[in-house]
Design brief:
This protein is an all-alpha fold and about 270 residues long. The termini are far apart. About 75% of the residues lie in helices and about 0% in strands. Helix 1 crosses helix 12, helix 2 crosses helix 12 and helix 8 crosses helix 9.
Length: about 270
């Protein structure tokens, strides 16, 4: 029919979208996918037997165990500590609140090597506060906690700001205790944000290098973490072994991010 208007298929890209999609795909491939693929190829360059031999090396296995164990412990503490800090920043008023809110972001702004220097100055052999736990697993834990705590705080804080407090007050008026109101009303709304913050904190802890290279002491079988082990292998003319360890760290990070994202989607579907 003359004059009839034919609707464009909705799946068709807008005029500039095709170019934008192409640029985004190229950027992602060159800066992310190609380097990751190169690491995998390098790690398996001597075959899967060589790959497994590199990972089953006692020093490498110990470094991987230490890294994952410390990352899990730090992440668990972050979930609790980060939620409490976010709650205090949103729900309470006290002197110095603005300063605390600013200090939370310091680990984001500091280069990790500078964070290591700060922790070394504060908790090293000449500690001004009388605490010395560098070159130990406690030092590793503190360093990882320092660089990861903002992730959970900044993920949970915006959700708390948007929550309607009338719902909590209604629950309280019906006889719910503060803990019950938090568990039944507030916490379900925090699950997606907590999942995102947890994933980012764990992934950062697993891959952390800058702060640990100064604080941990890098002692094999004791305080050497996986990221430092990668550097050690590479410096000892074993790039395939270094790449093998790197692929494990990559796999752990990807599995964590995907798993947490699935948990977040499940929580959103449940409402």
């Amino acid at each position: 029919m003359a004059g009839a208007i034919t609707a464009e298929p909705r799946s068709r890209l807008a005029a500039g979208s095709g170019l934008g999609l192409g640029l985004a795909t190229t950027w992602l491939s060159l800066l992310v996918l190609v380097p990751l693929a190169a690491v995998v190829v390098k790690a398996t360059g001597h075959g899967w037997d060589g790959y497994w031999k590199a990972l089953s090396n006692p020093s490498t296995a110990a470094a991987l165990r230490l890294t994952v164990t410390q990352a899990v412990l730090v992440t668990v503490v972050n979930v609790v500590l980060g939620t409490v800090v976010a709650w205090v920043l949103v729900r309470d008023d006290f002197p110095g609140k603005a300063l605390l809110d600013l200090v939370i972001d310091v680990p984001f702004a500091l280069p990790t090597i500078v964070a290591g220097l700060v922790l070394l100055s504060l908790y090293g052999p000449k500690s001004p506060v009388g605490l010395h736990f560098t070159n130990s697993r406690v030092g590793i834990f503190v360093a990882l906690l320092f660089v990861t705590v903002p992730f959970v705080v900044r993920a949970v804080q915006p959700v708390l700001l948007e929550l309607d407090r009338d719902v909590e007050e209604a629950a309280a008026s019906l006889g719910a205790s503060p803990f019950t109101a938090f568990r039944r009303v507030v916490f379900p709304n925090l699950v997606p944000a907590l999942a995102a913050g947890t994933a980012l904190a764990f992934a950062r802890a697993v891959s952390e290098y800058g702060s640990l290279v100064l604080v941990s002491g890098n002692r094999p079988f004791a305080t050497e973490v996986a990221a430092v082990r990668v550097l050690s292998l590479n410096e000892n003319d074993n790039p395939a072994g270094a790449a093998a360890v790197a692929t494990v760290l990559l796999a752990v990070a990807i599995v964590t991010l995907v798993g947490i994202d699935l948990l977040r989607r499940w929580a959103v579907r449940r409402g």
